[in-house]
Design brief:
This protein has 713 residues and is an alpha+beta fold. It folds into 7 domains: 68 residues, no CATH class; 128 residues, no CATH class; 56 residues, no CATH class; 99 residues, Elongation Factor Tu (Ef-tu), domain 3, CATH 2.40.30.130; 141 residues, Threonyl-tRNA Synthetase, Chain A, domain 2; 45 residues; 118 residues, Diaminopimelate Epimerase, Chain A, domain 1, CATH 3.10.310.40. It contains 19 helices and 27 strands. The strands form 7 sheets. A 6-stranded antiparallel β-barrel has the order 8-9-13-12-11-14. Strands 22-23-24-25-27-26 form a 6-stranded mixed beta sheet, sandwiched between helices. It has a 4-stranded antiparallel beta sheet with strand order 1-2-3-4. Strand 20 and strand 21 form a beta hairpin. Helix 2 packs across helix 3.
Length: 713
Amino acid sequence: KDNFWEMGETGPCGPCSEIHINLSDDLNAANLVNAGSPQCIEIWNLVFIQYNRDESGKLNELPSKHVDTGMGFERICAVLQNKKSNYDTDVFTPIINAIEKLSGINYDINLPANDNSESGKNNVSMRVIADHIRTLTFAIADGATPGNEGRGYVLRRLLRRASRYGRRINLKEPFLNKLVNEVVKNFSHVFPEIKVNQSQIEKIIKAEEESFNATLDRGIELFDSLTKKLNEKNEKIISGDDVFKLYDTYGFPVDLTAVMAREQGYSIDENRFNELMNQQKERARKSTKEKIGTIGISITSLDDFKLPNNNPTIFTGYDELKSSAKIIGFKKEEEKIFLVLDRTPFYVESGGQISDTGTIQIDDEKLNVVELLKINNQVVHVCEPNEKIKLEIGNEVIAEVDRIRRWNIMRNHSATHFLHKALRQILGTHVQQAGSYVGPDRLRFDFNHFEKVSKDDLEAIEKLVNEKLRENIPMIHHRDTPFEEAKKMGALMFFGDKYGDKVNVVQFGDYTLEFCGGTHVHNSSQIGLLKIISESSIASGVRRIEAVTGEGVEKYIFELQSKLEIEEQKINQLIDEKKKLEKEIASLKLKEKLGGIDSIISNAKEVNGIKIFKGKVEASNMDELKSMGDELREKMKSGVGLLISEIENKVGIVAVVSDDLIKEKKILAGNIVKQIAQIVGGSGGGRPHLATAGGKDVTKIEEALSSIEKIFS
């Protein structure tokens, strides 16, 4: 009579028999039942489901009654193993032992659960981590991933909480992924899926923890700074402005701020925080309204359209892009005309696919449709004004969608289905759509994933998609299919998504089957080619791929060609500039080297009345050596000059003779270099005033230089 179980304000319920176990030494301690004491815990509950509580609170007898039995697995283990705590059983001790090894801190099994010493706090940290890593491992193996919404946010909070407790036991680097193996070792014999998915689980947890660590470090630092200031003022409430700053500027979760505050005896001003959050949302809404206002759309109801009924507009756009229709309501404004038709081929933006554009023809005149709205399932066509058209209820019109634009949209939309499937095949079944944009120019696909998609994986995804597109797979459109029937078909659906009683399912062969209300190509080959143009992060755990198809690929190729041409021009300009600079540098270097000619001039020797100018010089090539020879000939006035240089491990020789010696003594530069070249294993020749030669033996350069005097002695 005293015990009654119900899961909420309404629903199945009934009396229950709770089974407790007394762990205290006092066998008559009935007062401990449901008193929150660890000495007396509930291990089983038998609920006699015999009523249904309706919204008025009344209990109604159920036609079919049953017993709902619920047992606490960990608590039963503790009883069977004669342990006082769930965490002392073999369900948790292997994980806790692994945490001990990682942290270098011992778990004291003899301390009571409420011990507040340093060792007691360490025990709490290890228990939290052990519990949360087990939950994370199983949940991720089942297909859930940390995220910002629904169950994903629950996992994210669990992981962050475990990570923060790790800081208390010296685990400052990502460590949770290292504990997955311990969970797998202890549970995979019963749950093989955690073994199969172990690598993926570890990657997801590691990526999430790495992402959070930087935020956690900065957040803890700022939080400590805030509490220090509050201590100085003897205050115990963290202002909503500071909480909002932690959240908005530094990405520190408000729920984590609240937990940390509570642990240290503080509270947060949630009312002020919520006020600031609402202001931020209002600014975003205002920004959206301003954007909408720029195209003159201000319709929020159809009250002044004088519609004959509230029947939904019949959508014909799955089967045709041009439909006959009647005007059943309209409204004129200075800059826009708003039309409601009884039927339309125009698709209104939904599910990521943007609205169609096109024309509505009335007699011989046309209205350009620039935007669409859906209000109470009736489609409002937003048109540019045309003064030549007289609008009347009942007007027969031709509504025609921009065919080229719609086909480009359909190609991109169908491609997202193939892309989604390929992502799940290459990256894993944890991938699920987190948003999309499908326009005529490109597609954008957001999805849950824990790390940057590698270049190799992107190439594999793109290759797989294009292989499937070339298979010419026909599209099968299952329209107005009962939801339960669609589920039985195996259509891709996700936890937390909402679906109506009847749904549309788009199927391409046995490759992809998804719930979708959008418009699509008739077969995969009509998509043409898909080209991924970017992959990026848009939020923690959410990636974005942008891609193009069909005409978009052509434009992308043309843009690349144009960029290549521009880059080629830039490269050629740089090459020309480089050559120019190289010439300037060579000229400067030559001038520097020519400065050494003065030293050769000042050290001339005379043999039989002939001045000999000789020396070993540094030259980069034979042209440079010849230039140095010209400089020497000009400066020596009368005489014979010999310059030798080692150029790329070979010998370069140049000989010069002044005009007077050529004329009066018939001394020729060509004859000189031939004799010198023989010494270094080479040959040469040239004109009477300047000749060059080359040789192989660089070890005999000094001997060659010395031989010039012998020629004239």
